[in-house]
Every structure is written in structure tokens, then in C-alpha cells.
Amino acid sequence: MEWPLNIDPQQILLHWMNFAILTGGLYFLLYKPVKQFMEKREAHYRDLEEQAEDKLARAEQLQAEAQAKLEAADDEIHDERMRAQQAASDAAQEQLAQAEEQARRIVAKAQAEAEQSKERALRESQKEMRELAAKAAKKLAARPGEDFFDQFLDLTEGGGAHEGR
Length: 165
Prior knowledge:
By secondary structure, this protein is an all-alpha fold. It contains two helices and no strands. The longest helix has 134 residues, at 9-142.
């Protein structure tokens, strides 16, 4: 039997067998190694991705720890600043109290000195008055016949208004 277009079924069957052998050979020679290579590559990239995720998680953990440490340091700095301000305030209050005590002592000393000066001035003026009175009495006793009061006034005023009489 003759097939149209000179097609021989035996030739077609042989070509199909050659194609099947070629496909099988290429499958074992190329497809399996390429598939294994691709699986290894996929596993390698999966491992890299897992490592990257682990590193990212570790970095986030380190960042959280660093943030916690920073917040703790900020709290500690704030507490230390408050203690320093309190210490400075206490020192200022103590210095103020010392200054007030010193001012009180200075004022008391000045008042005592003023009182002593006043008493000394009073004693000196009384002494001068006694001396003047004694001098006036001597002078009055030396001038007989005049009114003692007028004589006293003349002596104390320096002989002003009553001398003309």
C-alpha cells in the first residue's frame, strides 16, 4: 500500500522511537542535572533569605535593646540632673542661711557699736555740760551784782543779745 505523499509508517515509527530515545537521553543527561542545579540554587537562596531574616530579627532585637538602654540612660540622666539641681538648691539655701546669719550678726554688732557710741557721746556731752556749768558758775560767782540767769545766758550765747542791756 502506498501512502500519499510518500509517507512510510515504518519511517514515522522509527522517527518517533528516535525522538523518544533522544527525549529520554536528554531528560537524564540535561533535565535532571539542570533540575538538581535549580533545586540547589533555590535551597541556597532560601538559606540566604533565612539568614537575612535571622539577621534582620537580630538587628531589630539589638535596636530594641539599644532603645531600651537609651531610655534607661535618659531616665538616669534626668534623675541625676534632678539630684544635682536639688543639691545646688540645698547649697544655695545653706549659703543664704549663712549670709542671713552673718548679716544678723553684723547688724547686731553695728547696733551695739551705735549704742556704745551714743552712750559715749552722751557721757562726753554731759561731761562738757558739767564743765561748762562749772565754768559758768565760776564766772558768775566772779561778777557780783548782775542777775545770774542773764549772766548764764550771756556766757552760753557768747555774749550776744543780753550784753546790750
